[in-house]
Amino acid sequence: MNWNEFKKTENAGYLFIVLGVLNWSGNFVAARGLAGTVDPATLNLMRWSLATLVFLPFGIRSFWRERAQVARLWKELSIIAICGISLYDTLVFLAGNTSEALNMSLISTMSPLLTALVAQFFMHEKLKTCMYAGIVISTFGVALLVTDGSLGKLLHMRFAQGDLLILCTAMMSAVYNTVVKKVTDKISQTTLLMSCCMFGTLFIIPLYIWETGGKIVVPDFTYGLVVSLIYLSVFASILCYLFWNMAVEVLGASRTALFYYALPPASAVVAWFVIHEPVNLNQVVSGMIILAGIIFALYGDSPKFMKQKANNYG
């Protein structure tokens, strides 16, 4: 089996989503570390401007060759850029100023459910009961993880302005995943990512002008800022979006969105591996529950699974 055949298989889809999650897992850590040092739209503009420049030598030829298709799909590509890049990342950075980490994590878990609903009503993807059951199981795992095993914390949650922004990003994520699926069979992945970079950066400029009052503001380029920008631009932008879009093409919007639940435990693993942050029992248990929810959502209705379930109860 050659590469062109393999990349269309289900196994390739899972490989792409794992690579996407791994590249994305440090995004919130890096963004959180820069909070208060660089304004949201300014940070997002720098991030995607650098990502565009880095990817330009690899994507410009494909973009130019498929320029006619890009012109025909400019509405869809604009929606993808706005919901997945321009507004999404800016609102995440902005929400971090007023929303608590617990609220952000829990509200973000609505993304797979919203994606499933959007895909069902607008893309006519057939979703079965096991999909929603898996979403509930994984959401419980995330709640257990972010509350450190004390679910009683949920009763004392306070909602701030940033929580509404995170809810908006969850809705944007649903729209992004659904529209990406509509265009993946019409243009190449290279052209899609090049279009996302260019359109996304362009649409950030008005936000930057509004944020700075029309002035050109250049932040202090410290070592930490430079390293964070390189990570955010190359790994959490180019590679992450490329692998994620490839996964959506193979698995569909709803199934790919399920792996959004894998971000918290993946972030914990990355933190353990990179900065030696300890992993506790609650994180292990929560990660297993999240994984169980994903597996049940994907395979809960398969004949083999149902037969095994019947045997267990028989």
Mean pLDDT: 80
Class per helix and strand makeup: mainly alpha
Helix content: over 70%
What is the element string, with H for helices and E for strands?
Answer: HHHHHHHHHHHHHHHH
**Number of continuous helical runs:** 16
Radius of gyration computed on alpha carbons = 20 Å
* Topology, number of strands: 0
Form type: globular
- Termini separation (Å)? 41 Å
Subunit arrangement of the protein = single chain
Largest sheet: none
Q: Roughly what fraction of the amino acids lie in strands?
A: under 5%
Can you describe what's shown?
The protein is mostly helical and 314 residues long. Helices cover 78% and strands 0% of the residues. The protein contains 16 helices and no strands. It has helices at residues 3-6, 10-24, 27-34, 40-65, 67-72, 74-95, 101-108, 110-122, 129-146, 161-183, 189-212, 223-251, 253-258, 263-275, 281-299, 303-313. The longest helix is centred in the last third of the chain and has 29 residues, at 223-251. The chain is globular.
SSE inventory with pairings:
Elements: H1 3-6, H2 10-24, H3 27-34, H4 40-65, H5 67-72, H6 74-95, H7 101-108, H8 110-122, H9 129-146, H10 161-183, H11 189-212, H12 223-251, H13 253-258, H14 263-275, H15 281-299, H16 303-313
Helix pairs in contact: 2-12, 3-12, 4-6, 4-11, 4-12, 6-10, 6-11, 7-9, 7-10, 8-10, 9-15, 11-12
